[in-house]
Design a protein that fits this description.
The chain is an all-alpha fold and 681 residues long. It is built from 35 helices and no strands.
Length: 681
Amino acid sequence: KMAAAGGAGSAAALWSEVNRCGQNGDFARALKSVNKILQISKDDVTALQCKVVCLIQNGNFKEALSVINTHTKVLTSDIIAFEKAYCEYRLNRIENALKTIQSASQQTDKLKELYGQVLYRLERYDDCLAAYRDLIRNSQDEYEEERKTNLSAVVAAQSTWEKVMPEDLGLREATYELCYNSACALIGQGKLNEAMKKLQKAEELCRQSLSEDSDVTEEDTEAELAIIHGQMAYIMQLQGRTEDALQLYNQIIKLKPTDVGLLAVIANNIITINKDQNVFDSKKKVKLTNAEGVEHKLSKKQLQAIEFNKALLAMYTNQADQCRKLSASLQSQSPEHLLPVLIQAAQLCREKQHAKAVALLQDFADQHPANAAEIKLTMAQLKIAQGSITKACMILRSIEELQHKPGMVSALVTMYSHEEDIDSAIEVFTQAIQWYQQFQARTNYSCCVFQPKSPVHLSLIREAANFKLKHGRKKEAISDLEELWKQNPKDVHTLAQLISAYSLVDPEKAKVLSKHLPSSDTMSLKVDVDALENSHGATYVRKKAGKLTGDSQQKEQGQGDVKKKKKKKKGKLPKNYDPKVTPDPERWLPMRERSYYRGRKKGKKKDQVGKGTQGSTTAGSSELDASKTASSPPTSPRPGSAAAVSATSNVIPPRHQKPAGAPATKKKQQQKKKKGAKGGW
């Protein structure tokens, strides 16, 4: 009895310690006391519950879940449902957490909160939205702002991933989290400018909120703003401002944020900007997408986009096996998705295996008829690249849902014209026109009211008529033109074409139709000629004639039109022009083309000095001696002496005279060339 009393006393002291530590937030010390209590009573339900809570508070979710699973008889689902579901949620066992919540006999407010989080992670956004609406409606506590933030996050996810038009929740955007989620919803709608303004407001609210806390540093503020700046950079990228986006992305990476999901998204976006350029940088960035825990931070579509880009990067870096492995894995995960098979086909084309690429695409089109149109367009592109235009046309014509589209008709007609297959081109026009006729008949039947032909239908008929006229199919074009004129009898252009076509086939019919042409009086255009000539784009503008007096009018009538003669300007002469000297007749020719051109004067002194025996001088050496000349002019004029030299000099400028002995020099050069030529022809 004394031992039992002593044990009870120690247990009471331990419970007091647990209570005190719990209030102080010291869960590690509280856990030690709880373990001592369990040594006394191993199946104590309250002690086991406290142990689970202490482990959760310390972040030991696996151990907490292990305690729950090993004491299932004592810790029933009614008692420990929330703690078990929370541990499973934090361990990313989302499906198990959902089952635990749904199996609970009583849905407490805590379970409902966790249920909303679980639905969001499972991307069941409609159910999640309903859960949060119910919580906000039936709860009144200090966590209302957090619930509204979560609600706005659900709406943003619907807009971004499911392309659902978000409804106005009437939330007052007083926090930066609400502003950020609102911006994400606007991005999903494509309203990029509005989204940027919301993000700027979110940044301002974030800075204002964090500035109120004295313990928050500038680095902490920038880390908190990283996700907002990342979304800003994404908007810039969507707007085509790739340089600005890239700069902002790199600034965020330099901050080294702890959010691996944010880093993975930014790295992926940089890879998409680099494309097949700057591959070394892309290979470094792709490592950030492989960080631990990324798969739990991002949505399925984000993870899928990252995997697609990994496969494309492997293709750009010539890692063929890696590219095939990644694309095959993606195809197994999403068999109906187009991108994996398109990546495989692109890799085969890089390996010059076009036939295999077409076969691969054909198999996919047969297995997935819903996506066959896009695949067949790619097949046609490959055939065109191979030069098989006719086969490409056959593939395009097999896409039934696109046969009547103006773009498809235009492409087929152009391709058939290139192959000079006019009959097939006309057949394409005919099939498209028939489709619109059948559609018109169905519409008239359902509405019970006659409706005129659509603009697209009439446009196709006109294009068909023009094409037939161009290629000499007058009789076939006449029926199309008559149909057009029937729809619009006031169309003079169509009537003129019809008359032109009939004039070559049935002239009498052309005469009859010409009576429907409007008269010349009705066709006269009221054009202000003066205004037209004085317009900005006129190449010729008539000068406005001034008012003439009576005398001048009579003078003009008597004398007629007299043209005013223009005064000729005197040409400018050179400053050193001498009228006594006859100008050089070849002065207008380039120097090389003149008869007295002797080429460059390189090595002139070298040729004149040093010839003959050592120490002897040439006959012209006296000319080089400045002391023997009467007056040797300076090599360059002194300041102020130029005018005196030009005034007293009788030397004729080279431009106005032919140098003496030029022909003789030319003959000497020719003789030297003849002597120096050895071997030759």
